[in-house]
Amino acid sequence: MTEQKKVELLAPAGNLEKMKIALNYGADAVYGGTSTFSLRIRSGKEFDMDAYKEGIDYAHARGKKVYTTINSFPFNSQVKLYENHIAKMAELGPDALIVSSPGIVKMAKQIAPNIPIHLSTQANVMNALDAQVYYDMGVTRIIVAREISLKDCEAIKSVLPDLELEVFVHGSMCFAYSGRCLISAIQTGRVPNRGSCANDCRFPYEIYAHNPESGTTFRLDEEEGIGTYIMNAKDMNMASHVDEILASGVIDSLKIEGRTKSPYYAGVVTKAYRAAIDDYYAGKFDPQKYQAELNTTQNRGFSDAYLISRPFERNDTESHDFTIQNGTHQVAALVSEDGKTWRCKDKTCIGDEVEIVLPVGATVELVDNEYGKVEERDGRYWLTFKKLISISGKEFECIHSGDLNDILLPAELPGYTILRRGIAEALEKKGLTEDSTPMKMVPKDRVCD
């Protein structure tokens, strides 16, 4: 009996810092790209060619992979630009190119024949017939449509056992079919499938009835408690089903959405799914543990989407009364890459206690000195601040979010360690309460790979 191949954990890399965080928090591979022809133009602007090359080298030095996104759809006038961009990205040595259209598949194979081609979820592959076409063109992996079922994945794999299948397991969900939406283009001129979606589906909408003969317009009031966020999909969260997905034996990669989301999201979500995968193979799968961590992040409510249940069987995939809500925790600070200092993400004062969230496999030294105290309680680590001193020697009573001073730690911590506190304490520092949430805001993310 051959040993089961372990599934890959693939995390988003919106910029160099988030790429490094995802890799340190357990990702086997990351995906991202520069803004050119990527379906994440905003996040891609944080990656220039030099930074992206540094990220690829960083990943490869740790035995990890980087998949480059070139997954928007070209106009005729852009074909030559696509050719030039593919050639430039290929020179950086990524482990695969993620593309969306048959024409770009063919182009990539001609320009970079030695780099594997992954087909974007935007291509909407749902069955073995379509999968066969792309496989015959040279595609080595298909990121299947969001609406596909696990049974359909099994059917594809039975026909094409050497074709890799990748599925999304966590992150934003688009209300449109496979992310193919035109609302943003119609309302704001920002084309979703060109990477510049304005997230129009996340806004509340009012409904009116108009009589053209009389010119009379009536506003239709929605039933109380139903809400007006009529196109706002809940976030996907498949952590509790990782065991079913892995037991099927047909999925090669589990993908987390979120290149435009925060470093905290990149670290905590990646670590939660790393634990779920590793625990499954170790025979100690515990969904409550993973959900507790995932619930610390901001979200629109969670749904297990369509991989296990068909779309028509679901009635809980929309969040009608808010756009996004606080999670159970708020990030207070992020430790520097060298582990010697931290920068504030949420108001922090002398005497404050924060939880230490470590990268995967990292350890921490317990100390108690003039700068602070690091202790362990119930399997978790905590840091209490006694002094707030910057590397330049400036002392503070409190540090506020956005302050760029690098503050000394009482002891060196693993690079990119996260410091966090409970949401109630975080809101209290802002003069708010948990009754102030859920928050009605529009986040800077949308759904595609």
For the structure shown, list the relevant keywords.
449 residues, alpha/beta, TIM Barrel, Elongation Factor Tu (Ef-tu), domain 3, 3 domains, eight-stranded parallel beta barrel, eight-stranded antiparallel beta sheet, 12 helices, 26% helix, globular, disordered C terminus
How many domains? Answer: 3
Backbone CA Rg: 23 Å
Name the beta content range: 15-25%
Average pLDDT value?
88
Going by CATH, the homologous superfamily of the largest domain would be Aldolase class I
The CATH class of the largest domain is identified as Alpha Beta
Structural class: alpha/beta
Helix content: 25-40%
The assigned CATH architecture of the largest domain is: Alpha-Beta Barrel
Describe the structure.
Keywords: Hydrolase, Protease. The chain is an alpha/beta fold and 449 residues long. The protein folds into three domains: 8-173 and 233-313, Alpha-Beta Barrel (TIM Barrel); 178-220, no CATH class; 329-436, Beta Barrel (Elongation Factor Tu (Ef-tu), domain 3), CATH 2.40.30. The protein contains twelve helices and 24 strands. The chain has helices spanning 16-24, 41-44, 49-61, 79-91, 102-111, 128-137, 150-159, 183-188, 242-248, 263-282, 287-294, 423-429; strands at 8-12, 29-32, 65-69, 96-99, 117-119, 139-143, 164-171, 207-211, 216-220, 235-237, 253-256, 302-303, 329-335, 341-344, 348-349, 353-357, 367-368, 372-377, 380-385, 388-389, 395-396, 398-399, 407-408, 418-422. The strands form five sheets. It has an eight-stranded parallel barrel, surrounded by five helices. An eight-stranded antiparallel β-sheet has the order 17-18-19-16-24-13-14-23. Strands 8-9 form a two-stranded antiparallel sheet. Helix 1 packs parallel to helix 3, helix 1 runs parallel beside helix 10 and helix 6 packs across helix 7 (150-159). It starts with 7 loop residues before the first strand and ends in a 20-residue tail after the last helix.
